[in-house]
Design goal:
alpha+beta; VOC family protein; 19% helix; globular; 2,3-Dihydroxybiphenyl 1,2-Dioxygenase, domain 1; Glyas_Bleomycin-R_OHBP_Dase
Length: 178
């Protein structure tokens, strides 16, 4: 790839993701100190056909997603120790873990990552028709890039979360989905 910054030119960055040591304390910080939220909890996520460094894995994780203005904040809680970016070398805690970009076509992202010489860390299906790739383009842990092609209904789900943040009064800071 000859264009400088081409990996982030695929789509705007829409999410900052964190892997906190203390999930509840992080949620309190983001909602009570920063004022982001409310957060929506999705528990026990297992990607379809998930691989870590090309090998199948049964990693399970939960996420809480909220908005800080138009920026999505994701807090991640691993639910098992299976190989993933949430265990081992890439499990950097209490600082930025990865950024996310929503793309229309995951194959365009896959091609750009290959051209950049990136290492695809995690790949998997999101729902019936979505797909995600987490990659290291050379920055190492804490610099992971996530590209997601949303599943059907994903855009509407994120819009609902963003709309809930508009004028949020601080009540009910964590809301379960699913």
């Amino acid at each position: 790839m000859t264009k400088r910054g081409a990996l982030t030119d695929l789509a705007p960055i829409n999410q900052l993701a964190y892997l906190p040591s203390d999930f509840d304390a992080a949620l309190h910080h983001w909602t009570q100190v920063v004022g982001a939220g409310p957060f929506f909890l999705m528990e026990n996520i297992a990607l379809g056909d998930m691989t870590y460094l090309g090998q199948p894995t049964d990693a399970v994780f939960s996420v809480a997603i909220g908005y800080w203005g138009d920026m999505q904040i994701e807090l991640i809680r691993p639910e098992n120790d299976s190989p993933s970016i949430y265990s081992g070398k890439y499990a950097v805690k209490d600082r930025l873990h990865h950024i996310c970009m929503v793309v229309d076509d995951i194959e365009v992202a896959r091609k750009a990552l290959a051209e950049a010489g990136a290492t695809n860390l995690v790949e998997g299906k999101v729902g019936e028709d979505g797909y995600v790739i987490y990659a290291d383009a050379g920055g190492g842990p804490g610099n992971v890039l996530e590209y997601v092609q949303l599943m059907s209904g994903g855009k509407e789900l994120f819009a609902m979360m963003r709309d809930a943040a508009k004028g949020w009064d601080g009540s009910d800071p964590l809301r379960k989905i699913g």
